[in-house]
Structures are given as C-alpha cells and as structure tokens.
Design brief:
The complex is a heterodimer.
Chain A lengths: L4 H17 L3 E2 H8 L3 H10 L15 E3 L3 E4 L13 H15 L6 H18 L9 E4 L4 H13 L1 E9 L4 E15 L1 E8 L4 E6 L3 E10 L23 E6 L5 H5 L4 E4 L5 E6 L7 H7 L3 E5 L1 H16 L6
Antiparallel strand pairs in A: 1-3, 2-3, 5-6, 5-9, 6-7, 7-8, 10-12, 10-13, 11-12
Chain B lengths: L4 H14 L4 E2 H7 L1 H4 L4 H17 L5 E4 L5 E4 L2 H4 L8 H11 L5 H16 L8 H4 L3 E4 L7 H10 L3 E5 L8 E13 L2 E8 L4 E6 L3 E7 L14 H8 L6 E8 L4 H6 L2 E4 L4 E8 L3 H6 L5 E5 L1 H15 L2
Antiparallel strand pairs in B: 1-3, 2-3, 5-6, 5-9, 6-7, 7-8, 10-12, 10-13, 11-12
Classes of the chains: A alpha+beta, B alpha+beta.
Chain lengths: 318, 317
Amino acid sequence: MATNAIDQTRRMLSLVTYLRERPGAHVQDVARAFGITEDELISDLDVLPMCGTSFRGGDLLDIDTDGDRIWWHNPDDVAEPLRLAADEATALLVAARAVATLPGLRESDRQALVRATAKLETAAGEVGAASSRLSVTFESEGGVFAEVDRAISERRRLWLRYYSPARDELTEREVDPIRLFAVGHTYMEGWCRFSEARRTFRLDRVAEIRLLDAPSAPPALELRDLSEGLVHPAAEDPEVVIEVGPGGRWVAEYYPHDSAEELPDGGMRITLRTPDPASLRRLALRLGGEGRITAPRDLAESARSAAREALAAYDGTL
Amino acid sequence: MAIAKAERLMNLALCLLGTRRPLSKRELRGSIEAYLEAGTDESFNRMFERDKEDLRELGLVIETVENLDGDTGYLARRDSNRLPPITLDAEEAAALGLAAKVWQQARLAGAASGALQKLRAAGMPEAEDAYEVHSALEPRIPVHEAAFEPLMLACRDRRPVTFDYRKANAARPEQRQVEPWTLECWRGHWYLAGWDRGRGAERVFRLSRISGRVRSRAGAFTAPVPDVVTVRETVESWAGETATRTARIRLRTGAGYPLRSRAISVRELGDGWDELEIPYGHGLDAWLVEFGPDVVVSEPADLRADVMDRLRAVAKD
C-alpha cells in the first residue's frame, strides 16, 4: 500500500513514543494498536534507525526488530506524546459529534462518545476551535434503526413493509440483516428471503418493521467495499441516455452514471446503466421541460403516455 | 538513491524537538543527511521551507528565534508541543475508534487515524475486540467533491476564495468571490456557507456545483463571521421541507406511499381514489408529477397549473 510521507511521519512520531513505554512490544500488537498492516509497520521500522537528532553524532534511534518483537536500545526523552494538529482535532471532533447524533446508536456508546469528545476538546485546546467550521448531519430513522440493530445483535430475521420508488409500491419481505451503514442516508444490507439475494434497504423507505422469532441465517458473504459507492450496475445492464438542459444538471449529481457530456446549450447528455430502466419513468416525468430520455425508446414512450393519461384526468375537473 | 521524504521530515522533527537552543539552518543542514545531499543552497532552502510547513501541518509548533549574530534559529519547545494529559477509558477509546473510521476523504481519514495514534501513544487503552463492542452501525461520511479539501483549508485558515459556480438552472458558471465560513454535510452532500463579496450577502453553495479549481486569495475577511451559521435551514428550504401552505390532491388507492406518510389528512373517496391534504413547499410540483396518472391536484390553482405545465412538457416530447 502506498503511504504518503505526511501520514507516515505522523505515525512514526507516535510510534517512538509508544515504543518507549513498551520494550519488546510484539509487531502484531503494535500494528493493531496503530491500525496499520504489519508490512507498513516493518517499513516504518526500516526508516526509524536512519533518524535521530544528528546522523553525525551517532545518536540515531537504535530501534530494531526480529520480525516478532521490537526493541529500542537507546530510548530517548525526545519521545513525548505530541499535541494534536488542527486537522487531527477537526477530523476526530467533527466525526465524533456527527456519530453522537446518530439515532439508534446504543446509549452507552453515545455517552462514551460524548465524554470522549469533551476530553478531546480540552486536550486539543485552541486548535480544536476550527472544528466548528465543519459539520455533518446523518439522517434520522430512529425507530427502524433500533429494530434492525436489535435484530443484528440477537441474530433474528426481520419482516418489512418496504417502499420501492421504482414501482411506487409497498412490498412485504423477510430479511436476514447483515449490517447497518450510513452514507448520507442510513441503510441496512441484508439477505432477502423472497428474492434469495443480497439487498440494500434505505431505512427511510421502511414503512413497517417487525422482529421475527426465526433466526437470521444469511449465507456467508464478502462485505462490499462501501467506498466505491452503493450502486454498481452490471456491464450487461441496459443503457439509458438522458439529455437535460441547464435546469436538469442535477441529474448528474444524483444518479451514478457512466458518462456526462457537456452540451452547447449548457445542458448535458448523461449515459447510465440500470437493471431496470422502467424505474426511471419517474425521472422522465419529473424532468418536465428540463430534459428527456432519448434511449431506450419504449421508456421515453411510457413517460409520454403516462403524462397524457395524467393530463386527461384534469379535463372537466375543477 | 534519494532519501525518502518521511525520513527527512522525521529527522527534522527529532532535531527540532531534541534541541534546547535554537538551531540555525546551517546546523540543521549539517545534521540531516538528506539536506547535505540537497545540492545547491537554493534547493536546500526550498526543501527546508516546505518541510517546516509540513511539520506545522502535523501540529508541531516551531518557533523562529533571532540570535545575537542576527542568524535565524529554529526549535520546537517540549512544553508547547506536549499533549496535555488526557485519560480515556476503554469504552471512550472504542467510541473514538468508531468515529475515526467515518471519513472517506484521504486527508481527514489520515488526520483522524493520526489523532488516534497520538492518543494511543499517550496511553489510550485498546478495545477488547473492535467489532463486538460497538453498535452494528457503520457510519460513513462521503466526500466526492473535489472542492472539499481546498475549501476546508480556507474555512480553517479564514482565507477568502474564488471559484466558478453554476447555479441550479444556469447555463454557464459564474465566478464568485467568497469568504468561507463553514462546510456542512446534509443527506450526503456538502454545502458551503459564507459571505459572497460580489453580491454583498450571505450565500450557501452546493459543492458539487463548483467547477474548476478553488483559488485562495490574499487578504483577510471583510465581513464579520456570525456566531451561528444556518446552512441547514437554507438547504431544507431548497429541498421543499419548509412548507408554507397546504395542497389538496387526489391519489389512487394504494399508490404514493411517501405522499401518504407526509399527509396531514387522508380521506377515502371510495371510487379507487383517496383525497389527501399535504404540506406545499418548494418543489412539490416536480414531486407530484413523478406519480404520473396516480395523482390529480385539486388545489391551490397555481400548483395545479404548474403540474399541468410539467405534464404537457413531457406529453409533447
């Protein structure tokens, strides 16, 4: 893994402090404490013996490892715990405050976080002030969240009435929950017992939820890497082309897409793939005069006929 | 082979922290191998200035002291660089561990783990088992916008910026000069609030609508920074969540669950249709059109006309 020099320097400064207090520390334990791989730790340990207050004076750090334990033979009082940098204080304080507002966070965890935040603010001192210039709010779907959280910890199956915007309908499902996560909205990933497939449910679309007595037994799955985004269309999914004017550019912000080409009028041509193009009829209707779907043709046609049918209902009514 | 930057930075940090008296640039150059290999004075000076800045970003307080000979000396005093005592129990440590994982932005993710490592070095205990102690929740803060990092730094350092911004329905971006106050993430999108110099007023910007580079400008803020900046309220009103009136619509039985869950009242009409009263804020017309023939607006007349206009635009395509 590529390590950036800033992060590595920061880590090595903490590492010397840590190692001074723990002669003969195990590589495995230190790597875990620092949240890094053993290889990353070993590469830090390769650099440290080249560092010191002067390479000429022979006062380089005499740190070595046999691959299992780490020894520092000339520990030095230069290794005191260092104050937090502004970015460090900000990153941790903003995240801690955001997580503390999460609905459904266990009360004991929330209290621990609030206590830790207060201590951190004190320890950070004035560099913590900039953290008020950044804030994050997670969505609140508290009641549903608490039920899912409980189902996961008690390993029980869930019954849901779930809203699908693509079909504008509520469906009932039984789901073996796997995990909860929050990326803007809060989601549950689970194994849907009706479709026998992995599904992601947005909690604000859960209309009703019940814990069942049946045990949850999702098949062993590799968890998806959420950093790549939630939507992963397959290569064989049909392609949809949407042309929008300047007023429809938001489509590119909300819909993951393969390409977004600028058009001369300030609009865009957006190409995306979806397993279910019919689900985009809502979008075609919503766009009104600000854009239209150019492919596939039957999707464009279904939006047109829906609009005509809707207009017909206004004739003769007040 | 050139000496790696991390090794050079580490040596400079140790020299500055280890000394009791200010060290001149010459002394530092003589003590650090990478600086001896730097070649010309000019390339050494450039390297040294950059390294000093990097260490300051890492939180090191480096003092510049003029000595009797007029030479500039540098040192990082122990007492101004020491972390004040902080005692965290295992539960608090676990909670911070969860919080540190939420950033999906490289700079802040690196800073958050750096903070944890400093706390760990200062004696913060380790959780028994990181996966059992906390909630099942995995909160993540997405940061997809390229403008985020420069704006975050500008907010932190209170530096004015300029950027090209395209309003929601504008064909072309326009350059804006802004004194950035705060950044806020709501529903997974980032917004900036600040003083728009060109417009002489407070404005909220959506980061995804910033195109090109964010440039920081010299000079200080000219407008006072308010104590409380209300990004949320502005964004909520864009999202139509601050309704001022109510609308009456007919909705086909069984359809439109989100409209029902927000309705003030629902009455069955018995002919396959229900009548709903719903809050009427910005953007309701576009939302109602999504339901196509399953929604008919009864009143008010302006909403009804807006919905019909939108339907006509789709019908004639």
